[in-house]
Amino acid sequence: MAATLHVLRPQTPPLAGFLRLGHTGHRKLADLHAAGRFPFKRIVVDAAHFGEQRDLVKTLKAAGCEIVLDPNAAEMATAGRYGSSSLQKLAWSNPDRPWEPSDFGRHRNHDLARAVALFAIEAGVHAVLAPTHLIEAGATAWRAVDLRLCEALRHELDQAGGREIEIDYQLITTAAVLKDAKLRDGLAADIADLPIANVWLRVSGFGATATGAGTRTFVESVRPLHVMERALIVDMAGGFAGLATMAHGAVAGISHGVGQKESFKASDWNKPPSGGGGAGARTYVPELDRYFKEDQMAAIYAARGRSRFSCNDGSCCPLGAEDMFENAHGHFIRQRHLQIEDMSGTPETRRSEQFLLKHLDPAIRSARFGAKLKIEDQKVADAVNAAKVRMIRLRDALADLDSKGQPATRSPATIFRGGTKGISAVLGR
Ligand SMILES: [Zn+2]
């Protein structure tokens, strides 16, 4: 029993789940909140959609949620997005063409930072993401501009009465940049000195559908960013891939929407915006780590997959499969919340093991079961099989990473900024 004396100091810093309200579906989220079925405490709202979502944001803030504003500056510098009507409503947009780095020379255009600051103050948010832009290997012209804009935003917030509003830096980049040690470390050195709280990572090519190899590479190439000593939040990353980055200590939080903004591809900015996840009922199936449409699930159920692949969580979907589709939003956010909470409640040195044994392995067992079902619709059968193969590769890559031992560094935890004024004062924040 001597082993029981060998107890490590409990180390369970909380993990954070940020929910992006996105561009559709906020009415469903409002209904869920009214029904007491909205467990997320951290919210990201796009400036471009704040108008429609103002009431929901106000309600969530009053309920103690932390509110983070995304000024959508990066999109304004892209040919495919700058002209969208929702962006054009914002005071810092350019009606004529996408913004270019040269528009923000040292002595030009400080209006953007001021406009974002005034918007953030008026919106009453707790934090605002710095107005940054895509940094690609060989295309880093925004780098110096973004650092200046971040400092200018701090100045403007302080001047205009928004001293208590924090800035989180968002590093919008690619996996190639993260793998480029010189460029990555240079960016980290730049960002570390800024007047910011957390650092968000939005990485093109990473997200809910990342491969095992891609997820492992992401975890390994993010670790050197821990020198900044800032909490890292991986943005637009859902699914097991997103959860894995937290479980392995690379980041302290994840951020995504409900069936949207779960992955990020910079090239999508060159295309017209898609309708988004609100249309057509799709529901999240944790055992397969993906969404399915109702008729696709019907094909799985018809092949005797019902008990395995319908929601068995009575307080989430009391009627099982029917509820999963009736209330796909509620089902998704509850299941994701439970996944994050389980990891958050596990001491950090055991999180990767917990993730592999309690989340990924049971899902793989179910996926294997699913792959053996005689599903008549071949496309659905292929999708189930592909989900199985993907999760096995994810597990193999992460188990190998785990076998190398505990990481030398971990992301610090992010500090909760919501709550009521009274509580905040007591906590000294
Ligand atoms: Zn459910």
How would you describe this structure to a colleague?
The chain is of the alpha/beta class and 429 residues long. The chain has 2 domains: 12-270, TIM Barrel, CATH 3.20.20.70; 282-403, no CATH class. Helices cover 45% and strands 12% of the residues. It contains 16 helices and 11 strands. It has helices at residues 26-34, 50-62, 73-76, 85-88, 111-123, 142-159, 175-179, 181-192, 212-222, 239-247, 294-309, 321-326, 328-344, 351-372, 378-403, 421-426, and strands at 16-20, 42-46, 66-70, 127-129, 134-135, 166-174, 199-204, 232-235, 253-256, 282-285, 290-293. The strands form 2 sheets. Strands 1-2-3-4-6-7-8-9 form an 8-stranded parallel β-barrel, surrounded by 4 helices. A two-stranded antiparallel sheet has the order 10-11. Strand 8, helix 10 (239-247) and strand 9 form a beta-alpha-beta unit. It is globular. The model is unreliable at 422-429 (pLDDT under 50). Bound molecules: zinc ion.
Note the gap between the termini: 44 Å
Unreliable sequence segments: 422-429
The CATH homologous superfamily of the largest domain is termed Aldolase class I
**From N to C, what is the helix and strand string?**
EHEHEHHHEEHEHHEHEHEEEHHHHHH
Strand content: 5-15%
Record the strand order, biggest sheet.
Answer: 1-2-3-4-6-7-8-9
Give me the CATH fold name of the largest domain: TIM Barrel
CATH architecture title of the largest domain: Alpha-Beta Barrel
- Secondary structure class reads alpha/beta
State the total count of DSSP E strands.
Answer: 11
Rg (CA only): 22 Å
Largest beta-sheet characterization: 8 strands, parallel, barrel
For the record, the CATH class of the largest domain is Alpha Beta
Helix segment count?
A: 16
What is the count of structural domains?
Answer: 2
Bound molecules: zinc ion
- Could you estimate the helical fraction of the residues in percent? 40-55%
Basic shape: globular
Task: Name the average pLDDT.
Answer: 92
